[in-house]
Amino acid sequence: MEARHESWKARLPKGERDLWDALSTLDADAQASLFAHCASFAVNAVYEPANRYNQGRVSAQGVRTRLDQANVLARAVDLDMVRAGWKPSVDNYLGRVTKPRILEAVREAKGESSVQLIDHLKKADMAKEAERLLDGSGWLPEPLRLVDPNAASGEQESEAGPLPEFLAEDEDRDNASDDDPQQLDAAE
Question: What is the rounded CA–CA span in Å between residue 124 and residue 154?
């Protein structure tokens, strides 16, 4: 990133007066490249635990907001970490998480029978074998998965289903105008 920054620094004028003229002469690919470079300084998709007393660190809402914004950007550019070449290894993931998380990853990608092959191993050996098992599977840890914003709302709707008829009738009565008198039944 530093080399890219130095390259743009050398390519753009030193003074603000000439900046807009220089930017307008860039072709579309160069403009997109410069925009991506500038955005790379502003996007932060790193999860960090929020400190309860917020001792100089970000709040839970701040973390959630920046992760949501990073997800919007990832969808906009159709980010696919598998297509970009990322795969779980001992160095980049498996050696840094707990044994239960390693087993969960293998379970998600390869099923319970694969988990049983490695669940008895020490962590270092388990991570190595998990790397072998996950190779070529396309499995990604949750933070690297592209989030579908419609998936959560669609699940909630399908879980809840339509209102039962007796509740729908109550809703219709609540929405009726005051001009429409309703008959009240007294309980005996």
Answer: 40
pLDDT in tens, 113-167: 999 999 999 999 999 999 999 999 999 998 888 877 776 544 444 444 555 565 5
Q: If pLDDT is split at 50, 70 and 90, which confidence band does 111 have?
A: very high
Q: What is the mean pLDDT of the chain?
A: 81
CA distances from residue 135 to 75, 104, 172 in whole angstroms, order as listed: 25, 15, 56
- Helices first, then strands: H and E counts in the chain: 9, 0
Q: What is the pLDDT of residue 53?
A: 67
Domain boundaries, the chain: 1-42, 43-79, 94-144
Q: Taking the C-alpha atoms of 157, 162, 163 and 164 in order, what is their torsion angle to the nearest 10 degrees?
A: -140
CA distance 139 to 87: 7
44-60 CB burial, b ≥16 within 10 A, e <16: eeeeeeeeeeeeeebee
Distance between CA atoms of residues 89 and 82, nearest Å:
13
The residue among 79, 12, 14 whose CA lies nearest residue 40 is 79
**Ramachandran category for residue 146: left, alpha or beta (phi over 0 → left; psi -120 to 50 → alpha):** beta
Is the pTM higher than 0.70?
no
116: tokens are 């049983």
Residue with the two structure tokens 């699940």 = 155
